[in-house]
Amino acid sequence: MAWVIGQQLRLYNSLGRRLEDFAPREDEVGLYSCGPTVYSYQHLGNMRPYVFADTLRRALRWKGIPVRHIVNITDVGHAVADSDTGEDKLEVAAAKERRSVEEIASFYTKDYLAAMAALNVRPADVYPRASEYVPQMIEFAKRLEELGYTYELPSGLYFDTSKSPGYGTLALLDVAGQREGARVEQIEGRRNKSDFALWRAEEPGVRRVMRWNSPWGWGAPGWHLECSVMSMSLLGSHFDIHTGGIDHRELHHVNEIAQSEAYLGDGQPWVRYWLHNEFILLDSQKIAKSAGHTLRLADLTEAGYHPMAYRLFLLGGHYRSQLDFTPHAMDAAQATLRRLVNRVSALRPLPAVATLASARELVPADDAAALGYVEQLDAAISADLATPKILAILQDSLRDTTLSEQGLRVVIGAADALLGLCLDTLDVSEVEGRRSVSDLDSSEVETIERLVAERTQARKEKDWARADEIRAELEHLGVQVTDTASGPVWELR
Ligand SMILES: [Zn+2]
Description:
Layout: E1 10-13, E2 18-21, E3 29-33, H1 44-62, E4 67-71, H2 89-97, H3 101-118, H4 134-146, E5 150-153, E6 156-159, E7 196-201, E8 219-221, H5 225-235, E9 239-245, H6 252-264, E10 271-277, E11 280-282, H7 285-291, H8 297-302, H9 307-315, E12 323-325, H10 327-345, H11 356-362, H12 368-382, H13 387-399, H14 405-419, H15 442-460, H16 464-476, E13 479-484, E14 487-492
């Protein structure tokens, strides 16, 4: 096929749990990624699915394959605890923060997009909002009802999973429709434990803030419905790749497939390739605690890390491996980034290399070694997006003295087209190391200790003005003092 450039791209398909050759249905790849529920800040673990999807997009671009990428914004329908009943996450957040649901959705959508931009994740082609697709969701559910896939309960309209012959294939559910997912709650009258809500009716006497009228009364759509409806609206009935976090593989995506294939009724798989990224384990007790809330990107930047260091940390592990987030790992990522930027800045500007074809073209004719690295990069990205390998190839090329300067430039540009670390533009000063106590020399420590002692004395003498003065002086030195039950402790900010 014309689009096959370099090595055959192979991706790990959760549907069947195996590596498969990737072959798009048409010239343009349709890609759908389950997006954020915009009721709070996205934590660091939430960033991984999008950096992963971005890597996939970069891989397709590298191969010269055009992509249309959709990321939905869930601003309605996602109930607390991912359940079929109960309050909507957005409504709970709005009540808690004393803001309207629209304000909540708009605020956290902006925050999400800002984090994506900081991580150099290329914007999706469309970010559809669930609240704008409710009429289509109602039509979709009506069609399922006409086809006999549903039944109605006082709590809403349910999808009967026993009528879906392949139900649960994605999650490897052994007895179709019978296994009860850990998060599935008890619902009066439900026929099968795996049945899920297409429409969540208002409970008697409870009026939702976000409510629509439907053939099943006033209420709101079920959580799974939006992804089927919006992806088909924007990518067509069938498309190539659906991505998301691995937790979606067990419930959300299982239900998306069941309702979509029932709706289409053409006997074809709805989506060919299902790709899932593993979790980030947040093992950074200290930072998380001092921040007083779930760790997010802003906490890292406040602590002196560059967002690209977090991106590098993510790419340092394969997307299908769990990654342990620790301050040590972040320090290592920032140090690696600093060394890379230092080394690369002398070689700027880098050539614009987005595709394998352009990299091959730009390598000097007599630089076989550089061409070798370009082909290695292609082999690595083609092998299920092996980003750790790409980082290793980049490091090898930087140490290789046989490369011509132009050849090396092309290799770096090509590696960064796949990694997206902004190696052409990052300033060395932006990725300075964080100072830690071990970086201080003894006289600096002495000065700090002396000032802290003087401040303690001033406080004892109730000389608050002097105590404040010393605190300001310490802050000027980048030192933060906290008064604890066992006396003052200081740390570098
Ligand atoms: Zn989804």
